[in-house]
Amino acid sequence: MNFVKKDFKDTCILTTGNSINAEEKKEKYENVKEGLPYIATKDISNQGDINFLNGITIPKRYQKNFRLAKSKSTFLCIEGGSAGKKIAFSDEDAFFGNKLINISSKDNNELDPRYLHYFTRSDFFAKQFKNAINGIIGGASKRKIENFDIFYPDKISTQKRIIDKLEENSLITSKTVEQILDINVKLDNIFKRILENKIFNYQDNWKESKLEDLMTLKLQNGHSPKSEKFDNGGLRVLTLSAVTHFDFLPDQVKFSTDKIKNESDFLIGEGEFLISRGNVRNLVGHCAIVSNLKHPTIFPDLMMRVTLDKDIIIPEYLYYYLQTPSMRKHIESVARGANPSMVKINQKNVNGFVISYPSISLQKELVQFFDQAKLNIMGIKSLYESKMQLLKKQNQVFINKLLNNE
User: Given 3.40.50.10860, 3.40.50.300, 3.90.220.20, 2.60.120.560, which CATH number is that of 3-153?
Assistant: First the structure.
C-alpha cells in the first residue's frame, strides 16, 4: 500500500465560521422556519453527534453574510476547553460559529471525506493539534492547521476499504456505549425514585410552605457583564455549566474586565445555594451548593441565589427536594420561552415553590441517606464509565493501526 503525504492546505479546504451576538441571534435567527441551520460548539457532542435542530436558522436573505459548510465535511472545535476534542462529520449543509473550523476535501476522488474525518480523529492529528495550541483560552489557528501533515493511501478504493472497517468497528463500539449510557439513565431513574418515595410518601407531621417563606433574604438574580467585556483575564463569572446536572463546578467560568457597580453584592461564598433560571427545559432549575471555591467569583444573571433560614430548612435537603420527579415536572411546566434552547423561570415561580419538610433532625437523616444512595449509584456508574472508556480507547487504537497500515 502506497501512502501520499501532504500538508492540509494542499489537499483540504479549511474554513472558519462566524460569530453572532445574542441580540442579533434572537432578533433574526431564532425560530425561523426556512433557511439552513447554524451550529456552535455546544451543538456538537463529545461523541461526534450534531444537533441541527437547535432553534437557530439562517434565512436565505442573510446567508451571504455567513460561511457555509457543505455536507460530507468535518467540523473541528479549535478554541476553548473542547479544542481538538469535539470532532463531527456532517451530512448536511450548515453555517457555523467562529470557534469551529470546517475541513473538506478539495477532490473527493483523491481524498475521501470520511477518510479525512477519521484522520482528524487519529492520535497523529491530535499530537499536531496539541503542539499548535497557544493562548490563555487555548486554541489552534487556521494557519497552523493548514500546515499540518496528512497522509492517506494513494488509491481511493483502499481508503474506502479502510473506512468500511473503521465504521464497522465504530458501530459495534457505539452500540455498546449506547447500552452503557442506557444503564446510566436507569440508575439515575432509580435515584430519582428513591428521592420521590422518601420525601413524598412519608410526610406524617411534616410542614408545607412556599419557598419565599423559608428564606431570610429575598431571591437575588446575579449579574452578567457585557459580552464585549469578556476577556482572558479579570473577574471570574460562573457559567450555567457550573450548576448544571446538580453539581457545583467552580472552574466553569468566564473572565470579565467589566467594571461592575456593587460587585461585592454578586460575589458567592461557600455553602450558598444557587439555582439556574434559564436553560433548555430539562436543565432549567438545576441547582447546586457552592463548594471548593478558591477565587473570588460572581454568579451570572441566569442564576438566582437562595438564602434559606437554616433553623427551618437546610440547603442540602432543598438540594435533593428540587431533584425529585414531582418538582422537576413542576419546574419544567412553569418555564417559559419561545426559543426551546432557552426557557426561563422567574422569581415569582421560585418563590412559589411549595416545599414539604420535616424537622431539622429528620432532614439531616434524609440527607445522609440520600448522600449514601448517591455515592452507591455513582460507584456503579464509575464501573461502567471505566468500561466505556476502555472501549473508546480500543476503538482509537484500531483507528490508528488502520490509518498507519499496521
Answer: 3.90.220.20
Q: Are 319 and 288 in contact (CB under 8 A)?
A: yes
Phi, psi of 344 (to 5 degrees): -135, 150
The residue whose grid cell reads 420535616 is: 358
Phi first, then psi, for residue 178 (nearest 5°) are -60, -40
Residues 332, 335: Cα–Cα separation, whole Å: 5
**Phi then psi for 239, rounded to 5 degrees?**
-100, 170
Can you say whether the dihedral through the CA atoms of 70, 119, 79, 236 is positive or negative?
Answer: positive
Domain map (residue ranges) of the chain: 3-153, 155-185+362-406, 207-357
User: How does pLDDT run across 35-58, given as a tens digit for each residue?
Assistant: 999 999 999 998 889 999 998 999
Mean pLDDT of 160-184: 88
The superfamily (CATH) of domain 207-357 is: DNA methylase specificity domains (3.90.220.20)
Confidence band, pLDDT 50/70/90 cuts, at residue 251 = very high
Q: Is the pTM of this model over 0.90?
A: no
Judge whether 135 and 142 are in contact, CB under 8 Å: no
**pLDDT per residue over 298-354, tens digit each?**
999 999 999 999 999 999 999 999 999 999 999 999 999 988 778 999 999 999 999
Q: 175: which residues sit within 8 A by CB, 6+ positions away?
A: none
Dihedral sign for Cα 298, 303, 307, 313, please.
Answer: negative
